[in-house]
Amino acid sequence: MPSPSQTPSVPAAAALSAAPAASPVSSPVSSLVSSPLAEPVVEVRGLWTVFGTGAKAFAVHQDLDLTVQRGEILALVGGSGTGKTVLLRQMLGLAQPTRGSVTVLGRPAAEMGREGAASRVGMLFQQGALFSAFDVLGNVGFALQELGTLPAALVRDAALVKLQMVGLQPAHATRMPADLSGGMVKRVALARALVMDPPLLLLDEPTAGLDPNSSDEFCALLRALHQSLGLTVVMVTHDLDTLFALSTRVAVLADKKVIVTGAPREVVHFAHPFVREFFGGERGRRALLALPEDAPATPSFPQEA
Ligand SMILES: Nc1ncnc2c1ncn2[C@@H]1O[C@H](COP(=O)(O)OP(=O)(O)OP(=O)(O)O)[C@@H](O)[C@H]1O
Fold first, then answer.
1. How many angstroms does the Cα of residue 214 sit away from the middle of ligand 1?
2. What global pTM score does this model have?
3. Structural domains in the chain, sorted by start
């Protein structure tokens, strides 16, 4: 039984059939889009995602638009079941849009194939999702190993470089996932996501399950890698400290679409019940106070049809 937030205002199948046959390429929501330097890495246009069939069909996304520009750290926030993880999976090419398009670096994400995906998009899954039967090095080098074109020694060296990049020692290489702390699992999973040097990194709840110190350390690592590797990052998070520590822009998912995007300190003032609830508590106010004064402050709202 879907929760109220998943229940479409009209039956999903009927709504979908009433949608324009060719998804219109409406103006992206991004506030950076007018800049001549802006370069879209992810473009989501007229996205519909419908699960189930017949009377049980329900829409998670209805005509959703989103643009992520090169170099951004975009935080995707929304209530439970609003389709944030599904959207990340669509950017990774693991899930297909029902209608509309999700393109990454100009190509439909669903057509990237496994190797193409790994070299274009790295994904840090919520619980790390390490292969329990492989040691740390086996996990980090997995995508390179799968290519089947590189000598084992080269795969090993590349994996060791990535381990060092995330602050782990060569001595950790032979440990099994079950013997790692939560913070180390995240670091290994991050090294694995970056092993093919993808320009786009997707993070699903990157600091979930970490204690405050480990969470701060992991945020600092992500910030440093974002800068040194020139990454574009899309991050789903419920954690306000992580959101304010990392994001350069926030996109809010509600009512089955992106209702607002903009700088964190501006989006918090957007008039919508979810935004009020999410940012309005004591933690939200505290995290906001910790924001540097020069944090960007230009919100952008979806354009009227
Ligand atoms: N393969 C699938 N088949 C059917 N329903 C699915 C499938 N994948 C996701 N859903 C449904 O789509 C909705 C959105 O799921 P999703 O995991 O993206 O939500 P979310 O916004 O990430 O939620 P949370 O914040 O709780 O993690 C949920 O109702 C989920 O049950």
1. 28
2. 0.82
3. 69-93+111-289 (3.40.50.300)
